[in-house]
Amino acid sequence: MLPPPPSSRPDPKPVFCCWLTTTKVYVNTRLNLDKMETTNKFKTDFKYYKQKCPLPDFSKVLDFSNIKEETGLKRLHADISGKFVERDNEEAFVAGLMIPPSEWVMYEVLDKPGLLFIKNPFNAIGQRYWIYRCLRDYTRRPNRLNIDAHHILNKSNEWWDSCQGDDEHSKSLNRKLRWATMGYHHNWDTKVYSEDMKDQFPTDLADLSRYVGRIIGFQDDFSAEAAIVNFYHFDSTLSGHTDHSEMNMTAPLFSFRYDVHFGQTAIFLLGGPSLDVAPTAMYIKSGDIVIMSGHSRKCYHGIPKIVPSKEAPWNMDNISPLADCNFHSRTSEENEEFSPNPPCKRSRVESSVQSEIIQNLSCEKFWKPFCRYIEHSRINMNVRQVLFKGDKALDNKGT
Ligand SMILES: O=C(O)CCC(=O)C(=O)O
Fold first, then answer.
1. For the chain, does the N or the C end have fewer beta carbons within 10 angstroms?
2. Would you say 185 and 198 are in contact if contact means Cβ atoms under 8 Å apart?
């Protein structure tokens, strides 16, 4: 089951609450306590990587940007033959934000079957595009945010616009955002998706998901229906948890979730189906894509630490600043069209969105506030399928 929203997550984290409750019973029996600790290997490693003093030894953390020998890993190759064709404009657009699939560096982690890792396939503009979408657009209504419950934004204000000032209120608002949900909204209380808590899924993200899925050989089997965007700062963690909400978990081998990451580097732990399996620690860096499918889909995972990124791949290619930085700012009518959940006029809206954002993102002045955010933060977009293939809707109303 997914943990409660990061902002409301107490410390110690919920996944370990039963452990704490149980230890109370054994509090005077050191032997039993030790036994409990050694069986919860996930927790032990989580605490280890989280600790500040002394700093943990990171030398055992799997670093996909520095693979010396591929022991324990299987190199994968893009499925660019046969079924893969750039069929329509949307795909061409997604492809324009990435390096060619034949150059993607991809691995499966052998002792975590189904865990696939794609080493940053985005170009710098691609990174900027998704960072912009997550911050500026995916945080707009009707998407849901953790801060909705705090009632600190009035109805006519959006989060990104409201946290651009240099005053304390803006800065605090900026740090308070921890998640946004899209499509079928995750219900943090019941963990059950419902037709009542659903908005349209952004088409560009659905296209990206389909494109990545097809390249790794899932063909058209994945339909993006729910997403959580997580926002992390250097002191943020995400406790160990498993995913239970997606209906397809009843057939987990056919379920996959894929995560795209931007900004600062995370230490990601992936354990087993129970907490007594020691997790593998790996770095996830800006642009990396992680796919949890098959066996790994049911495994405990969490983020004990965010560490500063050594590079800034969102600035790295030769982004030629536009001769004139006269970027187009939208009128309120255009903003309607620019909604993260565009209505049916899909192609027209999507293509107008692309060129405008992409053009603007080459301008350093336009990019600056987004750059300022990402220099101290990490964004994770995780995308899931909720419905069984062929189904059009859930049969519950979620009440
Ligand atoms: O931030 C990440 O990499 C993982 C996020 C996650 O596991 C979740 O939202 O369930």
1. C
2. yes
